[in-house]
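User: What would this chain look like folded?
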Amino acid sequence: MIDRSIVPPIQPVDNLILPTPRRYELDNQIPVYEINMGNQQVIKLELIFKAGRWHEKEKLVARACSQLLRTGTLKHNAHEMAHFFEYYGASLGIYDGFNTSNIQLYCLSKHLERLLPMLQELLTEPAFAQDELQKFVTLNQQNLKVQLQKNDLVAYRVFTESIYGSSHPYGYNSTEATYDSLDRSNLVEHFNNCYKSNHCNIIISGKTPANCRQLLNRFFGQLEQGQLPDLDYPLMPPVERKVLHQVLDPSSLQASIRIGRRLFNRAHPDCHQFYMTNMILGGYFGARLMQNLREKHGYTYGAYASIETLMHSGYWYVHTDVGKDVAELAIQEIYTEIERLQDRPVHHDELDIVKNYTMGMQLTSIDGVFNVSSLLKSLITAQLDEQFFYEFIDTIKNIEPSHIQAMAQKYLDPDKLTEVVVL
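Assistant: Here's the prediction, encoded as structure tokens.
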């Protein structure tokens, strides 16, 4: 019998191996990454298109196009499509981002062949019905009115616009007027340019059938090519310190704080070391910002620092919501923690905790076929390969306090940070 009073030994996470997918191309050169793993008879299929904000000619067209894809084809309306996928117990999701739009299907392995014709129809005969576009506009305008009453959402909008500009795809914000300006012809043009074979990657994972390649080729191997619009979005020159305080509601009891700056994408040589620096400052529940603002002072329920890595750029920011009466004190403590990271090397015990935590996160990222699929998608969309994953693991294991301090000194200069507070 196991003696439950004895704590089992803690084993370090080591030798993480990222499963290698089977890669092949369809007749029209769409690259396919097949991950045949697991015991459950389920499949996740993702079609990833270069169809996000970066590739739109008019504001909000990418989002409207992706959302209207699921509202019907020339042969089936929205209700019929929804009933079809529900009948087979499948789940269809379509998600738009800054650089890509993703069509994601979860289903039982045995139903894949029955479901693919509808996906093919969605990609070859979308309706983009005018009445569905009007519903989309009306619903999102209503949602926008609600969102603009929330401090945290307004703070995010102000922050991203301040570091990228109001005309950049990473910085512009939606308004009622931009929704009103949406035109069906622009959606059709965006679809015909972007949702094409030469702008697509396919990832299929789970218990895939033996004829998986043949099935994908039958339904997606004849998709035509398209021409992405030739667009260029130069970044604004790096900004010096900027302070933006905005009163949304004089009676509000809460202040939303965002402090950060524009940085780099995942291909940058400092990406891994800065990630670990961010972890120590505010990347997890036990990080310094949480210990200070929550545990020590009781200013907030949560204070974090995050990195957003985009295809052509990236940004870093501290985010927290505090009582209006302690907003200035909280901001002072945020800068205190940044300066402490710059002035004194991290103790090895604290760094070891973060190393172990981060290694555990990486272990989770390859635990299960769908997690592997998500990790692979993040690499593909960033135009990276598996070597990026192994370089990150190496950084986690070998990073030293001096590296953390150097990153903080190099990138967290308070004179180069943008400070946004919305009351």
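The CA atoms of residues 262 and 315 lie 4 Å apart. If you want, I can go into more detail on any region.
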